[in-house]
Predict the structure.
Amino acid sequence: MKKALVIAGILALAALIYYFISNHFYYLFFSGPETESNQILTKTDLDELQGYLDYRNQSKDFPDEHSPVIVGVYNGTNVVEQYWCNDACPDNGILYLNYASSTEETCDEFSGIKLTKFGWGSGYIGCSPTENKFSY
């Protein structure tokens, strides 16, 4: 009986550790997934990158330079990490993944998610290969 409780405790502790690691705890200690601009990205790579950007958006960790950065290639086109802010920047800004060469009309061809801004001058801002937890 005592042995079963110890094993159950160890399993519960392992599950708790996994939960914290898989929910952005990892990003407190590491700078995020490493990619190269010509790297072919998988859906898993994109999900990891988006998780990292979600963490940065939540902590308001925005870059000083707001130029798009190529993170790799998915569906045959460059994917960039991009910063966008509409008002009260940088606090109301957001980092997101965007197909570099997409337009509102071609977003469907990429099976992407159309990103639209709200507020002043609402409209299309990009086409993302992943869903973002934060609104645009």
